[in-house]
Structures are given as C-alpha cells and as structure tokens.
Amino acid sequence: MSRIVNVALGQLGPIQSADSRAAVVARLCAMMREAHSLGAHVIVYPELALTTFFPRWYIEDEAVIDSYFEPSMPSRETLPLFELSRELGVGFYLGYAELAEEGGKRMRYNSAVLVDRRGAIVGKYRKIHVPGHFEHEPWRKFQHLEKRYFTPGQSFDVHQAFGGTIGMALCNDRRWAESYRVMALQGAEMVFIGYNTPVHNAPAPQHDDLSLFHNQLAVQAGAYQNGCWVASVAKGGLEEGVESIAGSLLVAPSGEVVARCVTKDDEVVLGRCDLDFCAVYKRTTFNFDLHRHPECYGLITARKGETLAADGSLLER
Amino acid sequence: MSRIVNVALGQLGPIQSADSRAAVVARLCAMMREAHSLGAHVIVYPELALTTFFPRWYIEDEAVIDSYFEPSMPSRETLPLFELSRELGVGFYLGYAELAEEGGKRMRYNSAVLVDRRGAIVGKYRKIHVPGHFEHEPWRKFQHLEKRYFTPGQSFDVHQAFGGTIGMALCNDRRWAESYRVMALQGAEMVFIGYNTPVHNAPAPQHDDLSLFHNQLAVQAGAYQNGCWVASVAKGGLEEGVESIAGSLLVAPSGEVVARCVTKDDEVVLGRCDLDFCAVYKRTTFNFDLHRHPECYGLITARKGETLAADGSLLER
C-alpha cells in the first residue's frame, strides 16, 4: 500500500516594506500554479509570508504594528489564494501574523493555517516557541522582538488532511525536540514548518556560520526520531538590509533530505511523499508503545529550565 | 574562562566468546595508557565492554546468562583498570552487565559506571531505553534479546566530575531526544554514551545502509539541542559472525563532530572539550528558562505511544 502526497516547498525570497499584500499574494499564486504544474497536492509557504519580517524593528505605534497583522483569514487580500487553491485542487500551509479577539481582548499570534484541496481551512496553529526578546535592544544591528509582538500558542494539534495526519509548527519550534514528539504522539505522519531565520544571530554571532547546518540538523532529527515527513520552508534572502537563510528542505522519515531549494528567492521544489513509509520507522526503532519510557521523562514537563519549575517559580538547588 | 576536559574515545573492536575478561581488561588498560599519553583526563569505553554482545543469543540456562554479568564493580577481573586509573589519573566510563540484588531479588541491568581520576566510582547508570525483543525469534539471522535479559533503569542522573556536570546514557538511549533533555534540565554539560549497534536491523533491513548516518544524526542533535558535549563510543567490527557499526564520535555543543574513530577495531582518539563553550548555546538559543514551554509538552509524559497511556493502559481514540 502507499499513500502518496506530492508536497511542494514554496520558498519565498525577500518581501520589502514597500511590497503590497496584493503583490505578495500574486507571487504566492504564481508559485501555486507552478506547484500544480508539477503535480503538487499541497504547497508549503513560509512563516509570516504576507509581509516583511517586522519583528526586526522596535515599533511603538500600535496602529503600525497592527498593519502587519490579518484580522481575518481569508482576508480580502488573501482571498485570491484560497480561490486558486479551490480552482487547482492544491492545498496549502501559510504563515501569517494573526490579530484575534478573545473575550473582548485583542491578541496577536504568529500563526499558520492549513488549507485543504478545496480551499477550506482545516487547521490553525499558533507558534509556541516564540524566540527573541521582549525589550527594546537598540544595541543590536537589528532586533528580534517576537516575544514583544506575539503571545505564544497553547497546543500542537494534528489534522486529518491529504489522506494522512498532518502537524504544523513555525520556525523556532523546529529546534525543539518536544514539538515533533507531541505531534508524533498524536500520530503525525507529516509536519509542515515555515521559518524566517536571519543569518546573523546577535546574542551568539558564533552561530552565524552554522545557521544552515543547524536548520538541517534539527529538521532531520525531528523527522527521523518520530518517523515522519517534514517540509520546512524559508523566507530567505536580503530583506530590508537583513540577510536570512533560505535552505528550504523536505526530509523523509529516514532523516534523509529528499528535496531542497537552492536559491534565496521565490522557488518551488516538489517531493513525492509516501505516508506509509513512516511505518518503517514508527513500527520498529521508534515504536513508541514498545520503547518509550515516560515514567523517566518527568522533568521535561515538571521543569522549564535548570533554574525554573514549569510554573516559572524558582527551583531550590 | 575555560574548563577543559580532555576526553578519549576508547573504541573497542570485537570481543569473541573465547576472549577472557582478563584479556579484555588488558586491552582496556592498553587503551587507557594510550589515552594518558595523549593527555586524556577521562576515557569513554563502550556498552557491555567486558564480554561479547550476548543478547544476540537466546539462552535458557540461567548460569550461562549470569556468566556474562558482574556481581560487583570493581570485580576481581576489572580491578586492574581501577588501579591503573588511580595510577595514571585517568577517569573512565565503562559499560557492563550488572547483576544486582534488591530486597532478596536478583536483578539484571545494562549498566555503566563513571570513575573519577582517583579510580573511585562517582556515578552509575542503568539503561532505560532497552531495545530489541523479549521472546525467542529464531527466524532472525541473529537476535536482539535485550528486553529479555535486562530490566530498564529508573532515572537519568547527572554527576559532578572532571570539573563539570556529567550525564550518562547507553546505546539506544541516544536515539531518544528525551534522554539528553532530562539530563540537560539537570545541567549536563557533557554526556557519555557507549553502544553496540549491529549493521543489520532484522525488523527493518531498510535501515541497514543508514546505520552510521542515524548514529551521527541522533548524537549531533542531542548535543546541539541541549548545548552539551557528547562522547559516544562503539564496540564495532565482526563479533561472533555479526558485524556492528563503529563510528565513535565526539560532538560539540554546536553539533559539530570534533573527533571520530575511523577503524572498526580498538582505537583511541582524543578531543579537547571546553565545558564553558556550552554556555554559547545554553544561554542563547537553548536557554531553557527563557524559551521552553513545558505547559505544551504534557503528552510527552502522559502517553507512552499513540495507543498507550504512560501507565500502559489503552488510550480511547
């Protein structure tokens, strides 16, 4: 038996401040048409795929911050993408900044939607591992204020789509083994991830040369150790003076890279994924029911870090 | 500041059934002398480093099984290694089969000891992720009966030694992200791992070509995602007709391989590890206190697998 999903990596080159949403959606639509011509069932776009990566700036004006967010999805500007999805029968994963209203309170999330081949939203994810910092740090060459602009999401869910069980994550989530594991414990066979990763890491410039290596290592390990496919897609290139890594890739449950983007621009690459191939790992080396030992993992949920308990209180040492 | 630990990988070639413990200990001692000549502070030996890898055989005679186990450590045969350790000032990690008595009950564990530079045991670890199978499966070319012969251990602890915080794991533990994380949450700066990994994986022969890749991937990810050094050391080569991978390696907190064995025989390779280099990762990208979200990891301890709860009961789906 085999359950084939043809997955397109829909990597984006830079989006400058002056680029309108309409112009960006036109690029996304062009890539969807290209993906369709390659036989894609679904195309994976990056994180925050509709605007420039605004968390690099300290912005005080709430209205300016809001201008980067979508109060609804689809919105007027993104509707063409949903319509094209339905027309072509190509689903998609799209990262965007989400403005939500919860009990009369305005909330901002770094989110992604999963859209099926009929153009219908079948899943939403709000980024949990929000990286960067909260305070204004003008000493940096550029900032990374995601912790200021985004409230973390609450759960890693999975969704039935494309004939299988699909999980979603965003950017920094991919470096944390817990992300993949929580989804795999719910049966995830394929995980979609969008990211924006500047080459330069201000607090740890020693990492700059290793950015692409770390990107690939984390995704390969997540795929292998959970017996699932992972499609991880960048917005890369020089955006508003900041260079981001590209290196979008598709990794098999074996941990092998089976497709990869090679430019730092808009680029579509297709991979053919057999969801039944997951079983070769999920039923042997990584048969969780047989081999995991949750009774020994207590600290993973009991502690936040070396000095803090899960609830944020100080640990006695 | 820097806290340097010179770590020797003490890879072993095969140990045949006919090889006496005394002969094996002589090999271990020769390697310790070589490590000392290279300036080593500690040498890491493999898992089950005193005998052939007996779990490949279905053995019914309890006395024969016991013959592969050590009822004490040091034992008469291993004492020369402890004496040489004290003489040279070289600590070690040694994997062995442990016969214990607990409340009048005989228990068998797949264990390792950590010995400081004065030849004193400062830590013990009993393997948690015991792989393989429990029942006689004569259809296999060779068996992997670890689940039959070993009771799983109860906890991943860390130990103060060699000027830092040291964790221990064994073989299959290295493929499970939880192993490294539980130790890193206790401050592990360096993890020692011994392993025996047959090239041929009977239930999943599709993995055979990837054994060395998977070995390296799991260790690199464990080191990078926890900002710690990992020394992972094999018993490799053709042992009693079964070929095992070698490929012992030392990985930095950056995920980079900094030392590697290249033979399938007894081989000593040295790496110079600065424990303070861990901070470059532990205080930035992998600052757990800042960036982890244990409130979203509940399933990791609540579930064993996709169908079983942590206590082994069936999940309702």
Automatic annotation (TrEMBL), chains A, B:
Keywords: Hydrolase
MF GO annotations: hydrolase activity
Gene3D superfamilies: Carbon-nitrogen hydrolase
Domain (CN hydrolase) ranges: 5-277
Entries under PROSITE patterns matching the protein: CN_HYDROLASE
Pfam families reported for this sequence: CN_hydrolase (PF00795)
Domain of life: Bacteria
CDD domains: DCase (cd07569)
Protein name (Swiss-Prot/TrEMBL): N-carbamoyl-D-amino-acid hydrolase
Organism listed in the record: Acidovorax bellezanensis
